[in-house]
Fold this sequence. Notes:
The protein is mostly helical. It has one domain: Amino acid/polyamine transporter I (Up-down Bundle), CATH 1.20.1740. 82% of the residues lie in helices and 0% in strands. It contains 20 helices and no strands. Helix 3 runs antiparallel to helix 14 (259-287) and helix 5 crosses helix 18. The protein is globular, with a radius of gyration of 21 Å. The relative contact order is 0.19. The protein binds 4-fluoro-L-phenylalanine. The site of 4-fluoro-L-phenylalanine has 15 residues, from helix 1, helix 2, helix 12 and helix 16.
Amino acid sequence: xxxxxxxxxxxxxxxxxxxxxxxxxxxxxxxxxxxxxxxxxxxxxxxxxxxxxxxxxxxxxxxxxxxxxxxxxxxxxxxxxxxxxxxxxxxxxxxxxxxxxxxxxxxxxxxxxxxxxxxxxxxxxxxxxxxxxxxxxxxxxxxxxxxxxxxxxxxxxxxxxxxxxxxxxxxxxxxxxxxxxxxxxxxxxxxxxxxxxxxxxxxxxxxxxxxxxxxxxxxxxxxxxxxxxxxxxxxxxxxxxxxxxxxxxxxxxxxxxxxxxxxxxxxxxxxxxxxxxxxxxxxxxxxxxxxxxxxxxxxxxxxxxxxxxxxxxxxxxxxxxxxxxxxxxxxxxxxxxxxxxxxxxxxxxxxxxxxxxxxxxxxxxxxxxxxxxxxxxxxxxxxxxxxxxxxxxxxxxxxxxxxxxxxxxxxxxxxxxxxxxxxxxxxxxxxxxxxxxxxxxxxxxxxxxxxxxxxxxxxxxxxxx
Length: 465
Ligand code: PFF
């Protein structure tokens, strides 16, 4: 066997992991899931979940990856025994499901970027004025989104985005990713902070902050059964946890790295970016008189096109913003396809280009129905985030907490220092409280998903067929 590669630079790993974590989860998914969860009550549960479950979970993936130096399926088999490879198989399936619709949504960002090339956002919105005039509630930005989100446009940009992802993974270009992340993360932060400062001047910014930052514990008490699984799914999705990305990335890691420090940096950037997105989006939505709970998957597009239409330099800001997010989405998409590809290469002996093209092709086809009707977005996203990622994380916790805890603590200590009782705290946190929380979240997530299948989805099928 050839010597397995390791990251070329100390920061290479962090950059790649941040590149995977920061993406559509922060910019597109976070604001609408927070809106659906009632704002601040959701934010609170989400932040607690990231700190108390996300952090131990990212360490668990790092430890399994660095210890075994394998793709997720091989890693679980080596770490836990041969039956565990089936769990690794679930990770691969999760990668298929997530990337299929991720590519469609990323295509929307590319589309909105191109809008800025041809005209101002105000100009584009004006073109939808007539169509929006028919109904009082519907704004130009919503009509525009509905027009672009499905149909030929959507299909073409899904195709383009997936082709790019497959091309990069097939060629195995890692250096390019490190550079892209170095530019993209600071760019996103600067743009978002600027937009948040502008949003603070909007007439209803105060009300928006109250909605986003001041939790109503009454809402929390009555809605926790839907907030908890949604927060769990969002936390795992945004941190790229529960499907083996962090196992894969840590498998290329040297033993001198301090995993706790790296995990803190990755989680810190990811959470900060999502948080600032909320500071941008909610003042715009609420000042525009809309209800953040009703905006669903178009929320970021409605709010930002309106902002870019109003701002003098909006066209350039929009170009920069949508373009940067598209790059962020690309680095996340690459990380997902990399998991699937490295599995096929390691376990089935295919060439890299064959694996990337074959797997990418199937994933692409799975995403095509989303470009036809957004009900398929809910079908795939609900399954991946509500069920698969939570299941993946839960199983990993069982593996690290119960099957081989000592190996995990020994591995974590490398590159830090003897952990003493801290190692026990980590293992015991995983063993009981975290596993219980994840079991509850998984159960509630399943119930929600079955409700969707038998409700909205069955209704759609009945109406369409
Ligand atoms: N974390 C990415 C985002 O927030 O956009 C999405 C993602 C990447 C999810 C990799 C899962 C994953 F394994």
